Amino acid sequence: MTGIDWDILVPLPVVLALAGAGVAVVVTGRIRLQRAVSVVTLSLVLVVALALLVGADREGPLSVTVGGWPARMGVVLIVDRLAALMLVVSATVTLGVLLYSIGQGAASTDEERADEQAPLPIFHPTMLVLSAGVSNTFITGDLFNLYVGFEILLASSFVLLTLGGSAPRIRAGISYVVVSLLASVILLSAIAMLYAATGTVNMAQMAERLDALPEGTRLVLQLMLLVAFAVKAAVFPMFGWLPDSYPTAPAPVTAVFAGLLTKVGVYSIMRTQTLLFPGDQLTELLMWAALATMLVGILGAVAQDDIKRMLSFTLVSHIGFMLFGVAVGTAAGISAAIFYVAHHITVQTTLFLVIGLIERYGGTTSLTRLGGLAKLAPVLAVLFFLPAMNLAGIPPFSGFLGKAGLLQAGAEQATWLAYLLIAGSVLTSLLTLYAIARVWSRAFWQPPIEPATEGLERVPRGMTLPAAALVAVGLAITVVAGPLFAVTDRAAADMLERAPYIDAVFPGGVP
Question: How far apart are the first and last CA of the chain?
């Protein structure tokens, strides 16, 4: 024992973000102060998340009960290695997106651009509320509180999606809300059924009591939760809302949505599958869902002529890789899936920020109207090329390492379905590379569609530097892949064992 009381840090990612949002609302009329409050708040959240990762890795899962209530009666917050790593990655990309948005707003001087691109005063408090909702879903040990976290995400994301009030954004926001509310109804119904069957919504207590239920009852409850989380994660066939919702939003909003929101659904699948429903009861179903998500998503990507929509479809396809690791269900599979989630959050967020730079420079993201960017904007070319190759899984980037871990875990399972999924993963990777190469060829290498002096705008340094910083973070994941895999290996082992999580909530045994 180090003598450090790590538990006191557990609620802070949520508390700091909500407190910062309140202060940001109070100082709405003073934009510079509001920006400072937001940046300081997310910086503190990142520092706390890093400390929690160190504490959880040294001491095991850290747990507190809100308000001092007994764990069986109150809301439990718990941070294990998985939750801590997700907190670190989410805080990093959210801070990067916030800095990017500040640079975008500072560079918007004319009224029209301010309306269309510069964040409105409500942007900063809403981003902080979104951060609180994401953190809440990662650290809660209470299934109903997990639902609350999703509802916080829904409310804040609808505000962000519809910033500016344009017709396309309102339509996209309505579609997103309708689908999300449907998923929320399914999730709430599943929680009600679980409570009726087990008498608790505490996940550690529920894990013990579910084992005593009939197999058929457990299967129905498991399927209900899976369907709800699959909609949130954009798993096939419940992904149609994503490509139509994300591209219409401002670049910072699209980036944070693409990086984080679907991964909250993936995290929930990981948590409930390992803690509440261990075993291989739905392995085949999850594998087929992973395969279909990969292939349908990437086929949609290669058919797009708009870079934003192309990236939205690749986002769907790469959710399949994460589901692959969960479906395999071994320590190697879960570890590779966690690593891939951390990698993908960073790289996907970065790419959408870079696409925002391209749109700012060239006035469009349509491949039919772009060209010559490698010569006209070499910095943009480098900023796109590095995360794009990472996304495609080119060695030695972290995307390759994560996929290699997943393929190895599938090969170790050695079933015909696992080998089929390995083949689908390789095909998806090749088609991802094709889609990226197509963007590179048409937007960067081919001659400009219009004269180079027409329609081009200088990209502000305040937007370029945060995007470049996230590119560097993506490269850093490759550099520290060995230690990071060691952390994810320990996280996966604890998740499959379940005892460390349950004992952290109920040290004296589950009542």
Answer: 27
* Contact indicator for 51, 85 with CB cutoff of 8 Å: no
For the stretch 159-182, what's the b/e string if a residue is b when 16 or more beta carbons lie within 10 angstroms of its beta carbon?
A: bbbbbbeeeebeebbebbbebbee
Per-residue burial over 213-232, b if 16 or more Cβ lie within 10 Å, else e, is eeeeebeebbbbbbebbbbb
Tell me whether residue 288 is in a domain.
Answer: yes
**From CA 138, how far away is CA 87, in angstroms rounded?**
7
- Total tally of structural domains belonging to the chain: 1
Q: Which residues pair with 76 in a beta bridge?
A: 65
Which two structure tokens, joined as six digits, stand for 506? 């109920």
Q: Which two tokens stand for residue 460?
A: 């502000």
**Model confidence pLDDT, tens digit, residues 235-285:** 988 887 788 777 777 788 888 888 888 899 999 999 999 999 987 778 889
Give the range of the structural domain holding residue 289, as residue numbers without chain letter: 279-496
SS3 76: strand
Q: How far apart are CA 246 and CA 234, in angstroms?
A: 12
Phi, psi angle pair for 338, to nearest 5°: -60, -45
| Tokens 């349950």 sit on residue | 502
- The reply to whether 424 falls in a domain is yes
Interatomic CA distance for residues 217 and 222, integer angstroms: 9
> Is residue 175 assigned to a domain?
no
- Round to whole Å and give the CA distance between 276 and 225: 11
Element (H, E) at 62: strand 62-65
Helices H, strands E: what count in the chain?
A: 22, 2
Contacts of 378 (CB under 8 A, 6+ apart): none
- The SS3 of residue 75 is coil
Q: Is residue 71 included in any domain, yes or no?
A: no
DSSP string, 131-169: HHHHHHHHHB-BHHHHHHHHHHHHHHHHHHHTTT--HHH
pLDDT digits (tens, 9 = 90+) for 374-419: 888 889 999 999 999 999 999 999 999 999 999 999 999 888 999 9
3-state class (DSSP) for residue 469:
helix
SS3 content of the chain, % helix, strand, coil (to 5): 75, 5, 20
